Amino acid sequence: VDAPADFVPQEELQLLRNLPPACAKCGSSGIGRHRMLQCICCGESSHPFCFGGIPEGREVDESSWRCADCNACVECESAADEELLLVCDCGAAYHTFCLKPTLKAVPEGVWKCPKCVRCERCGTTKPGRGGWRLDYRFCDECAKLHEQQGYCSVCHHDCREEEGAMVCCDVCEFWVHIECDGITQRGYDWITAKGDKFEYKCPKCDGRPPLRFGASLEVKLPKIKVIRLGMAG
Fold it and tell me: Which residues form the PHD-type domain (predicted)?
């Protein structure tokens, strides 16, 4: 008896069953670091960065993950009022009116859910009276300090007279305690004597960890402003 036209040998069927699922968005499989997540609602598999709006490498709760097409509010479990449904990078979605405190409008730019948001400076998860500011990077109080450039860009502590000498990065114009970048008192005195002839970048602007100058004070960096707190220089 001839086999049906659509007959597939058992060996091939087994091979197909062993193949990893294909991404519903791009069609490729999820292998190694490009693993896929399965939506708890529709069952479709997809790369989170492909279909769910989640950056590659971000940790996701696989037991509650929903794809972009199935996202529902964490609080009310409804997908209605889609224009007011905010989706965090972690995949969690909230209506503006379900958040505590509620948001009067959809924020422009970056938004972070209550589980992900944390002040970069003080570490609080509470926004303060003015709400989260500067793309949800800072609480209200720390945002004010950030705008005033009133803290060390390495240790994030306030600029206080008792904390000693500081230098100013010419790129971002934030102050850095000399101890926070490993600048010795001898090195600080040398920098002060050089004045405008010495240039400096803070660790963040220079793309490096805080370092100890010591024997390498001749390194050329952007222009520096140097003060002893309480005395402009």
Answer: 67-119, 149-208
Q: What is the DSSP letter of 144?
A: H
In-domain check, residue 200: yes
CA distance 88 to 90: 5
Does 23 reside within a domain?
A: no
Whole-structure pTM value: 0.48
Number of Cβ within a 10 Å radius of residue 163: 15
User: For the residues 84-93, what does the mean pLDDT come to?
Assistant: 85
Instruction: Give the highest mean pLDDT range of 25-29, 98-102, 134-138.
Output: 98-102
- Joined together, the tokens standing for residue 191 give 């920098």
Domain span including residue 217 = 161-227
Q: What Å distances lie between residue 146 and 109, 120, 143, 168, 175, CA to CA? A: 19, 11, 5, 14, 11
> In this structure, is residue 15 part of a structural domain?
no
Does one domain contain both 89 and 135? no
- pLDDT at res. 233: 40
Q: Can you tell me the distance from the alpha carbon of 206 to that of 117, in angstroms, rounded to the nearest whole number?
A: 27
Number of domains in the chain: 3
